Amino acid sequence: MKTKLFLFCLVTVFFSLLSCSHDVSEPYFEVRVDSVVSKDTLKVRFLDYVPDGLQQVVPVRLIGVETPSLKSPENQYATDEPYAAEAADKMKSFCGKTLIIFFDKKIGYRRDGAGSLYAYLYADATSFESINERLIREGYAKYWNLGLELENGKAERFEYAQEQAQFDGVGVWN
Question: pTM for the whole thing?
Answer without folding.
Answer: 0.82
